[in-house]
Amino acid sequence: MTSKFRVSGLTKSYGTNVVVDQLDLEIEEGEFLVLLGPSGCGKTTTLRCLAGLETPQDGTITFKDRMVFDGQSHVNVPAHKRNIGMVFQSYALWPHMTVRKNIQYPLKVRNMKQDIDRGAVEAAAEMVDCAKLLDRYPSQLSGGQQQRVAVARGLVAHPDLVLFDEPLSNLDARLRDQVRSQIHQLHQKLGFTAVFVTHDQSEAFALGDRLAIMKSGKIEQYDAPEHVFENPVSEYVAAFIGMGNRLELRRGHDGWMTSAGDSIDLQRATVRGLADKGTAAVARFRPDDLMLHRSMNEVPAGNVALHAELVTYEYGGRHFDVTVKTGTEELTLRANAQEHSVALRESKPGAPMVVSFSPSALRVFAADTADADAARQLAAVPAEAAA
Ligand SMILES: Nc1ncnc2c1ncn2[C@@H]1O[C@H](COP(=O)(O)OP(=O)(O)O)[C@@H](O)[C@H]1O
Ligand SMILES: [Mg+2]
């Protein structure tokens, strides 16, 4: 008897394009697992394989004691017999059915008439604040309401596993926060098992009991959010979870240096996969961990100070988002508005700036061109800095 959901060696390709590549996952009963990765890395395909909507070439999928897919012995339980709930990015409500009929649907196909009679539909609608909307059609609802109805439909039959495919992506920022918080509260209350797919790091951190960070059809890191946040295993993960600042380092006779020639003591940094004799490395750190100073005198003891020049700044209310350049590299930071407003407003691009960081903020990785390319692409993804 096991309460885990297990995916092992899952492989799915289209023609020669291997989209899911011998992927392993283990989900505890009641766990909210977030699958995080950039567009095209295979998240939706993985989810569709779990749901039984795609047939993988290889691997096994077990839901607790039940084998639902086995590539070797050709077990392939059809989607409607896997007892899953699904919530899609596009809501996917049936337009010709009322909210009541939409929510009722999973109960009907499972012959759970007793639940319908006992008010399960009304209760599910109530859960997502849609009790007053039961007789409306989807076209008469806002996007946020439609997605809440879709969540109710996904949960109403108490499925073994609930799959969410970027359900918040089509909502505007305010609604996104509302529905996210509602999903989080529902999970805390009902304790269903979930796999939630997103490309948004702040969603992932907010919702996940564990995060699986995906890269090219494989899981790159599988860990609690706090561990991923503090100890990304690769530059790829670091870039994806908000460590937007990147410094190329090289080892000279007297130790490590930035490309601008500033020396950096890596004693207090977290170093991963760097060979003793390696001469090139990459440091990643968060904009929150870079400080702006009015002069060198203000640099805290133990910090690495860098001479930089101003590139640009943007006002953000309590803070400014500031971009500076050191050598060839651009770094971003968040400066307290009260403290820096006057000086920043008087500065032109190119003005000299002093910035510093604590070496303990650095995550250092072996320089890897493939990772650097991937990381550059990721930096172009609009991911909010995880506060
Ligand atoms: N039905 C399909 N036929 C061919 N290629 C597909 C199909 N579905 C997905 N792909 C390809 O698989 C890759 C991963 O897609 P997907 O799983 O949708 O990624 P994600 O959800 O992470 O954005 C993409 O390159 C996509 O073009
Ligand atoms: Mg997708």
TrEMBL record:
Keywords: ATP-binding, Cell membrane, Membrane, Nucleotide-binding, Translocase, Transport. The keyword Cell membrane applies. SUPFAM superfamilies: MOP-like, P-loop containing nucleoside triphosphate hydrolases. One of its GO terms (molecular function) is ATP binding. Residues 5-241 form the ABC transporter domain. The keyword Nucleotide-binding applies. Gene3D superfamilies: P-loop containing nucleotide triphosphate hydrolases (3.40.50.300). It comes from the Bacteria. PANTHER family: MALTODEXTRIN IMPORT ATP-BINDING PROTEIN MSMX (PTHR43875), TREHALOSE IMPORT ATP-BINDING PROTEIN SUGC (PTHR43875:SF15). This is ABC transporter ATP-binding protein. It comes from Arthrobacter gengyunqii.
